[in-house]
Amino acid sequence: MEEQANSHDRSEAPRPRNRRMWHGVPLERVIGFFLFLCAAVSVLTTIGIVAVLVWEAAQFFGEISFFDFITGTKWTPLFASKHFGVLALVAGTVQTAIGAMIVALPLGLLSAIFMSEYAPNRIRGLVKPVLEVLAGIPTIVYGFFALLFITPLLRDVSGGISVFNGLSASIVMGIMILPMVSSLSEDAMRAVPRSLREGAYALGATKLEVSTQVVIPAALSGIVASFILAMSRAIGETMIVTIAAGQNPNFTLNPLVPIETMTAFIVQVSQGDSPTGTLEFKTIFAVALTLFVFTLFMNLLSQYIVARFREAYE
Amino acid sequence: MLQADPILQTKDLSVYYGANRVVTEVSLDVLRNRITAIIGPSGTGKSTLLRCFNRMNDLIPTFHLSGEVLFEGNNLYEPTVDATDIRYQIGMVFQRPNPFPKSIFDNVAFGPRINGYNGNLADLVEWSLQRAAIWDEVKDRLKSSALSLSGGQQQRLCIARTLAVEPTVILMDEPCSSLDPIATLAIEELMRELSEEYSIVIVTHNMQQAARVSNYTAFLMAEGDRVGQLVEFGESRQIFTNPQDERTEAYITGRFG
Ligand SMILES: Nc1ncnc2c1ncn2[C@@H]1O[C@H](COP(=O)(O)OP(=O)(O)OP(=O)(O)O)[C@@H](O)[C@H]1O
Ligand SMILES: [Mg+2]
C-alpha cells in the first residue's frame, strides 16, 4: 500500500502550491511563532518560580547553616529557641506519602486489572466514572473526612491514637490518589495490543496469567509512571495533611502521633503573622525549595523509568 | 471420499456474532497429520471458523454458535470442557507475529511454565526452536528481546512458542501474510515437516500456498445471508485441478473474490 502511494506521488510532476500569507510572512511561520509563545509562557512561569524560590532560600541560608538545615531533626522556627532541622518535616511528608501509597498502590493496581481485563464493558462504564468522581472531590472535603470520620473510627479501634495523626491522613490521601493510579494504569494496560493477550491465551493461559504475566509486564512503564505521579501528588498534597495530621513537627515515622509535613508548615506560616522579610517568613522558601527538589526528583525518576522500560519492551 | 480418522470435526456448525451469522452450517473433517487449508474471499468467516477449534472466540462477548465442534470425538463446547485445556492441546499461530515483549527464551518458555512443565526447560526451549528452524539464528542471543528479531524470525519464534507446549493440532491464520517470499517458503517448508507429527489447519489467501502445502482444502464463501458456507471440501490436488463446483473454479482461477 505505502509503496504504491509513494510511486504514485513521484510520477506526478511537482506542482506549485499556494502558500497562505499573513502580511508577507508565510502563515505557517506565524502559527509556529504563536505556538512557541504559548509554550514559552509556561516555561517562563516555571523559571520565575524557581528563581524566586532560590533567591529567597539563598537569603535564608545566609543566616542559617545549610548543613544544619538538611541534617537537623528539630524544627522550631516559630519558637524562642529556634531550630531549623527540616528532616522533622521531611519525615512527616515521607510518612504520609508512603502511607498513602500503601493504600493506593495495591487497590489502584487491582482495580486497574479488574477494569482492563475482567470487567464487562457495562460494568466498566459504571465503575470508571465513579472512580473519576473521587478525583474531582476538593481536597478540603477529604481533609475533613479524615479528621471527622476516619480519625474517630481509628480512635474507636485504639485509644492510643492521637486526634491528629499521620495514619488517618495517609488513608484518605491514598483514597484521593487511587483514581490516578487506577485510571493511568488501566490506560497503560488497555494499550497493550490484543494480539499479545491472544498469543498468551492460545498457549492455554488463564485470565490471571495473561493479566499478571503478559499485560502488566508489557504495561509496566505506564504503571510505574502512574505510581510515581501519584507519589508526587501525595508529597505535594496540602489540605488533607494540614487538617488531619497536625502541626507538630515530630521527627518520627510513627503514624499514630501528630506530625507536620512540609506543605502543612508552609500553610501554617502563611496563615500566621510572620511579617515579610523576617527569618520565619524566609523559612517558607527554604521548605518550598526542599519540596520542589523532592517532586523534581520524582518527575525525573518517572521519566527515567518510562524511558528505560520503553527500551526494553517496545 | 476422505479416509477416516478425523482429529477435528464440525457438524452443522453455525457461528454468530450477536445476530450476525458469519459461518453457516459447516460440516468438515480435519484429518490427523495432514495439512488442511481454508480458503475463500475476505470476510467469509475463515478466521472465525478456525478460532472455533481452540475456543479463541470465547473471548468475544457476542459470540455464540449452534452445531458441534468435535476434538478427538468430544464436543469442545460441552459446558464441562475447560477452554484453557483445549488451547493447550490445540496451538495457534497468528497472522501477525505477536511475540511477547520478553526475551527469546522466555517467549518459548512461557507456555511450558504456565502449564506446569517440570522437565528441563532449557532443553525444551532448544528443541522447540530447532523444530521451528530458528535455533541457529538465535542460539547465541536467547536472552535478547524477541522484538529485536525480523518479522520472519518472529513468526518462527511464535511457531516455536506454540510447539513448546506440545500440542497435537496447530491452527495457523494467514501465518505468512506479513512475510516476504523467502520467509514464506521457510515457513511452508516447516509446515510440511511438522505435519508428520502434527495436524495443521491453515487459513490462507494465497492460492499457490494452499496448493503447495496442503493435503486438503476447504473453500468458504458468502452468498446472500449464507455467509461462511462450505462450498467445496476435498483433496487439494483435486480442488485446484478439477474443482467440482463452478464457484470454486471461479474463485481459484481468480474470476471473483
Ligand atoms: N469480533 C467480532 N465481532 C463482530 N463481528 C466480527 C468479529 N470478528 C469478525 N466479525 C465479522 O465476521 C465476519 C467473518 O470474519 P472473519 O474474520 O472470520 O473473516 P475472514 O474470512 O477471516 O476474513 P479475512 O480473509 O479478511 O481475514 C466478518 O463479516 C466480520 O466483520
Ligand atoms: Mg481472517
Descriptive report:
- The complex is a heterodimer of chains A (314) and B (257).
- Chain A folds into two domains: 19-62; 69-309, MetI-like (MetI-like fold, Orthogonal Bundle), CATH 1.10.3720.
- Chain A is mainly α and 314 residues long.
- Chain A has helices at 2-11, 27-63, 66-71, 87-118, 121-136, 139-157, 166-190, 194-201, 207-218, 220-236, 239-244, 262-271, 279-313, and strands spanning 21-22, 25-26.
- Chain A starts with a helix and ends with a helix.
- Chain A is built from 13 helices and two strands.
- The radius of gyration of chain A is 26 Å and the shape is flat.
- Chain B has a single domain (6-252), classed as P-loop containing nucleotide triphosphate hydrolases (Rossmann fold).
- The mean pLDDT of chain B is 92.
- Helices cover 34% and strands 28% of the residues of chain B.
- Chain B has helices spanning 46-52, 83-89, 104-114, 121-131, 135-138, 151-163, 181-194, 207-213, 236-241, 246-252; strands spanning 6-17, 20-31, 35-39, 63-71, 74-75, 90-93, 169-173, 199-203, 216-223, 226-235.
- In chain B, helix 3 (104-114) crosses helix 4 (121-131).
- Chain B is of the alpha/beta class.
- The radius of gyration of chain B is 18 Å and the shape is globular.
- Chain B is built from ten helices and ten strands.
- Chain B has a six-stranded mixed beta sheet, sandwiched between helices.
- The structure holds adenosine-5'-triphosphate and magnesium ion.
- Adenosine-5'-triphosphate (ATP) is lined by residues 17, 22, 42-48, 60, 62 of chain B.
Keywords:
heterodimer, A: 314 residues, mainly alpha, MetI-like fold, 2 domains, 13 helices, 2 strands, flat, disordered N terminus, B: 257 residues, alpha/beta, Rossmann fold, six-stranded mixed β-sheet, four-stranded antiparallel β-sheet, 10 helices, 10 strands, globular, binds adenosine-5'-triphosphate, binds magnesium ion
